[in-house]
Amino acid sequence: MKNICIIPARGGSKRIPRKNIKNFLGKPIIAYSIEAALKSGVFSEVMVSTDDLEIAAIAQQYGAKTPFLRSPENSDDYASTTSVIKEVLANYAATDVFFDGCCCIYPTAPFIIPDNLVQANQLLVSGATDLVMTVVAYSFPIQRSLIINSSQTLAYKYPDQRLMRSQDLEPSYHDAGQFYFFLVNQFNTRDSIMSDRAVPLIRSELDVQDIDNESDWMIAELKMKLRLAHT
Predict the structure, then answer these.
(1) Whole-model pTM over 0.85
(2) What structural domains and CATH numbers belong to the chain?
């Protein structure tokens, strides 16, 4: 199977300026995503989709390709990951380059490991799914969540489950924000990445961190230091 890895990394970032190339424990954070993709050995092409020349130069320094810059339409705050991926695939198709599989790896996902990419590729090749994505369990049961009602008092969102034992509650998961590995032909028929045949790769809380602000960044660095100390 011929695969491409797309790492979407535009230049604009308001909450953490230049987030995609900010130093994360010794190197630009995007380098972790690039290196994991290259080390996995499952991609014919590892490329960074960006509108920023500095990001493009750093991506090339770490081994990724940047054959074209992202269009202005896909470079603002409202551009979706799906539209960015479709633009990249269309640009390759315009030069008669086509792929069977595509993996979108986020540029701020330093906890990705090559083995997860290999595992995801094997699942796709087996025909078991057309999308593999990383997920992590909610650390607290969402069935015990509270809402603030119209009278500004607290109430259980799921009152019928409030007295159930924690071990009897169904686990819930959320997107780990690391990667989506999918079959291109099926993806092209959808208007979003998500598929009704999606298969999860479950990650632990120590191997996942959403990075939206400076506090998230510090937590991610602490988690990485903890990981490195135990390897």
Answers:
(1) yes
(2) 3-135+175-229 (3.90.550.10)
